[in-house]
């Protein structure tokens, strides 16, 4: 019973960590893409 409880706890912690990680990496990725986009536009603008 205790092992089952620990297993469930580990699963939910892992799921929580994964959700947090995907949210954070999603935000970072979007921000990086936006920065890249602005940079490309600025490059095109100057040429």
In short:
The chain is an all-alpha fold. It is 96% helix and 0% strand.
Structure description:
The protein has one domain. By secondary structure, the protein is mainly alpha-helical. It is 96% helix and 0% strand. The chain has one helix at 2-46.
In angstroms, what is the radius of gyration? 20 Å
Query: How many distinct folded domains?
Result: 1
The chain-level mean pLDDT equals 92
Q: Identify the overall geometry.
A: rod-shaped
Q: How would a crystallographer describe the biggest sheet? A: none
Helix amount, in percent?
over 70%
Secondary structure: elements and pairs:
Layout (H helix, E strand, L loop, with lengths): L1 H45 L1
Characteristic terms for this protein:
96% helix, 47 residues, rod-shaped, 1 helix
């Amino acid at each position: 019973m205790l092992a089952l409880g620990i297993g469930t706890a580990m699963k939910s912690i892992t799921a929580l960590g994964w959700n947090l990680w995907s949210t954070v990496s999603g935000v970072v990725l979007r921000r990086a893409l936006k920065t890249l986009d602005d940079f490309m536009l600025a490059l095109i603008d100057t040429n």
